[in-house]
Structures are given as structure tokens and as C-alpha cells.
Amino acid sequence: MSTSYRLNKFLKYSSSTITTLVLGFFSITGAMANFNEGEGIQKITDRVFVIHGSLDLPNAENKGFMNNPVIALGDNGVVVIDPGSSSDIGRYIIEQVKKLSSKPITHVLSTHIHGDHWLGNHAIFEEYPQAQFFAHPDMISAANAGEADRWIALLNSLTSGATAGTSAHIPDNALHDGQNLAIPGLPIRVHLSDHAHTTTDAMFELIDESVVILGDNGLNGRIGRMDDGHFLGNITALKKVIDINAKWYVPGHGKTGTIEVATKYHNYLKMIHDAAKHYGEDFMPAFEIKQTIEEDFKAYASWHSFDEQFGRHVSLASLEVEQDAF
Ligand SMILES: [Zn+2]
Questions:
Q1: Which residues lie near ion ligand 1 (Cβ < 5 Å)?
Q2: Structure confidence at residue 282 (pLDDT)
């Protein structure tokens, strides 16, 4: 990276920060008016609602709102899962909750460490200080060890300052695999994995609603990054919740749907992993594996980020197969 490029980047970042500071007074109202792209809040069951964010990566236009916050109504309170990437988005989620229920938010669940999913926590903590915040134990430790600050800076940079003013409220209730959260009217079973999309993933089964929240272990219409992931672990995690045979599956990004949401992403990861294993045994280099199997991935070629991620995934899966062989 050249010095002038760095300087330009710095100036660009500083000026957008200054603009944000100057416009800060207006930002909350402005942001709230603009988050709700497309179809807005979608009712999945009588108790479960999803706000589907943009399929794009975080940018100035979407203000970092590109995940799928879930609002679920218990008898005595409201559960929110993954309230987005900033305090502004968290406040927007609270507004939506108030339209659906007069009850307070009592539980906030995080699917994993990536900040686009959970940095909205702080807004909920400010308004509902009694709420309990839950996550995978490794997410809690990673966030406390510096990942929270790193994600705040990263999202603020990617959105040209649109997430400014966000601070982290790190969950402090560690989940365990198979745990049942006995929330009146809304029992939830917790499914953790050691290493899937990240080492911090939690999936949530809303048992009576027959809804599974996948986090980024499963995406729809977008190919995820696997830089922090493990193909075989992600495949295993998805298979476990596919076997539940629930009525609805909520992906970390993209539209909610039936079991196909989970199986299609599962098959994508499995096809790549199987090819890496099969051709890797013949010592075929990753770029050749990619060329050999590309034809088989037509069903995914139109998905967001496919062109950037597909080749990278073949390389990562090849490395993983090699490492797992020892
Ligand atoms: Zn993620």
C-alpha cells in the first residue's frame, strides 16, 4: 500500500467522520427513516417476525443494515435475535418491537461474533437494562478480547461513518449446546458448534413455532465468507438442524424460507468440501479444482459474492482437507 493511498484513505475517513459529527444531531431520525428497505418486517408465525436486511456488504448506503434481526414474542416479554450492526439499527429494531408488543425486551440472543449481527445490542441495553444478553461462550471471550472494538471500527469505516456512536454491549450469559431457554410461550433450544462459520456460532430453534435461526451458518442468495470458518464443521452444524425438519429457516443474510434455505447452503459447502477432498487426493491444485467443478455450481452463480468467494472457498477447503488429514 503506497503512502499516498494511505493518506487518501485517511483523509476520506476523517472527512466522513467530521461530516458524521456535524450531522450527528440529525442522524438518528434520518437513519430510522431509511433502514427499512423493501418489504420491511415479515411475519413468519404469529409470534415470529424477521426484518430482512440488504444482501449487500456493509456500505454507506445501507448504513450497515444487512443482517436479519428476529423479533419473537413470548408471553411475558420479547426476544430479539441479532439486532444489527449499530446503535441506530438497534433503536430501529426497538421501534418495530413496540409496534408488535407492549411487553419489554427480556432476552437478546447473538448468533456469532461478526459485528453486523450484534452491535445493535447496546441500544436495547440502554432502553431495557433488565434484559439478559446470551451468546456462545467463545463469542463472549472473543468480544472482550478485542473483537468488539475491531468490529466497531471496521463497520464505521465500511459505512463511511454511518454507524458512528455505536458502543458494544457484550453478552454476559454463556450458552451451552442443547440448552433449553424456558421462555413462557416461546421455548428455545440452543444449538452450538465448535467451528462452523466461526468458532462462536449459536443457532436457535424456536420449538413451538418450528423456526430455526441459522445465523451465518446458512445464507440465502449470498455466498458467505469462510475466512473464519471450517467447511466440515459448518456442514455438520447445518445437517444437525436440517434433521429437525422445521417449517421455517431464517438465514443470517437473505430471505427466510422452508428447509431448502438450509439444504441449499449445506449442499454448496458439501460440494466444495467433497471436491477439495476428492481432487486433493490426486494433488490437483486448487485453481484446477475450481475450473473442474465450476460447471456444477450454476445454481449459485447468481448469488451475491459468488464471483469473489467461490475460488477462495475452493482454496480454503483444500487447505482444510490437507490440515485435517494430519
Ligand atoms: Zn458472519
A1: 114, 216
A2: 86
Q: Sort residue 38 into left (φ over 0), alpha (ψ -120 to 50) or beta.
A: left
Distance of CA 151 to the CA centre of its chain: 13
Q: Please tell me the chain's helix, strand, coil percentages from 3-state DSSP, rounded to the nearest 5.
A: 45, 15, 40
Report how far ligand 1's centroid is from the alpha carbon of 86 (Å): 15
**Where exactly are the structural domains of the chain?**
3-324
Q: Is the pLDDT of residue 1 over 50?
A: no
Residue 253 grid cell: 443474510
CATH (residue range 3-324): 3.60.15.10
Determine the distance separating the centroid of ligand 1 and the alpha carbon of 112, expressed in angstroms: 7
The x, y and z cell numbers of residue 103, run together, are 411487553
**Residue pLDDT, tens place only, 13-57:** 333 443 333 333 333 333 343 444 445 799 999 999 999 998 888
124-154 pLDDT, tens digit each: 999 999 999 999 999 999 999 999 999 999 9
Percentage, residues of the chain above pLDDT 90: 81
β-strand partners of 43? 49
Distance 317 CA to ligand 1 centre (A): 18
